[in-house]
Automatic annotation (TrEMBL):
Domain Exostosin GT47: from-to ranges: 27-367
Keyword Repressor: no
Compartment annotation: Golgi apparatus membrane
CC annotations in GO: Golgi membrane
Molecular function, one GO term: glycosyltransferase activity
UniProt record similarity statement: Belongs to the glycosyltransferase 47 family.
Record membrane topology: Single-pass type II membrane protein
Keyword annotations from UniProtKB, A to Z: Glycosyltransferase, Golgi apparatus, Signal, Signal-anchor, Transferase, Transmembrane
This protein's name: Putative xyloglucan galactosyltransferase GT19
Species: Dichanthelium oligosanthes
Taxonomic lineage of the native organism: Eukaryota, Viridiplantae, Streptophyta, Embryophyta, Tracheophyta
Amino acid sequence: MAVPLFLFLLLNAAAVPRAGAEGADPCAGRRIHIRGLPPRFNADLLRHCGADAFPLADASAAATSAPPCESLANHGLGPRTHQRSRSWYRTDARLLEPFFHRRIVERDCLTDDPAHADAVFVPYYAALDALPYVLDPALLDASARHGVELAEFLARDQPRILSRRQGHDHFLVVAGSAWDYAQPPGTEPRLWGTTSLLRLPELANFTFLTVESRMWPWQEHAIPHPTSFHPASLPHQRAWLARARRSRRGVLMLFAGGISRPSRPNIRGSILAECANRTDACVVVDCSGGKCSHDPGRYMRAMLRSKFCLQPPGDTPTRRSTFDAILAGCVPVFFEDLAARRQYGWHLPPARYDEFSVHIPKETVVFGGVRIAETLQSVPEAEVRRMRKRVLEMAPRVVYRRHGSTAELSGAGEDAVDLAVDGVLRRIRRRTRAQEEGRPERIYATEDDSVEM
């Protein structure tokens, strides 16, 4: 398979003009160096899409999504949902890494000289490099080696870049949950579907941007799950938010997700049971078997008609559906803090959650007899409208704008990529300052993990 044009642009990032200005330095504290890596760590990994053994689209989604190699269209956003669409794409979340790379290349304040950089971006496509370990049974026992070749390369090639700050100024993106990359290297037998990337001592000081972090986010920080909405202009973004704002919402609550009945009591089972008994108040969108992965129309229309969108944890606490709901102006209902409040502090300030979401402890529903519909019906309509307004105000912060988005849109506020990079730069500044001041106890402080708006 030929290397797409956008990969040529990524691998030749040095050709991108750097920002400069007379007088005050607009790039002070914001300069990023993109670490040069051999193609085997990024571009070559995209060729997996054409391989029978390690496809980018798994079999469960194959019947409802575009052919796997089409996921690479539009710089990793995937094919458009329909020909006239300018903002909606069939996005494969595992391609967040090359898309994020593309957006970094477009930024101002890049520098070719790592000695002048405030941060070093490592364009490693970790989730794609993990595919052989998680899909090939023959490589299961080797999953502890995920990332070892990268670590060896960084230590060997221009070692001063890594040693200057012992890796505290390095960051990279991992398209998945941190739990999928945090298996202890000595685990026997090896756990299927996970690797030990985050356990590599050579990368211990790096900041990892993941779509879900662990409880102790000293090493990683969560960034929003990518949705299918990637506006390229301010009018496109405003048009969608206006549609969500004026949408008539005759449904009290909606659940979009897998509908298989659990073998033991849990919050998803309670939701499905209540929705089966309250068809007047609840709508269920069946997303079993990857039906919704590449088909946003399947659930977005229903979300636009609903007041509340239920966000129960599944295999892990967080859900892409949370961010789909925010885009639709459907007030998210959380059942545990790990689902979002303790995850996305750079994008959704924890102190403001009560302004745009509802929290119902899952234990009170599963074991305490609390009825979700009754709880939500008790919320005054004026309060629901205020929460919906606040949700739509937050929406641009969780959107991943299309690459090459117009200057008008770029100047309208920071999107998910901008906020993630700002957060990384804050974290790196704090860590390097602690190093310079000889205060190692401050290196792993986490007060920068949430921001006030």
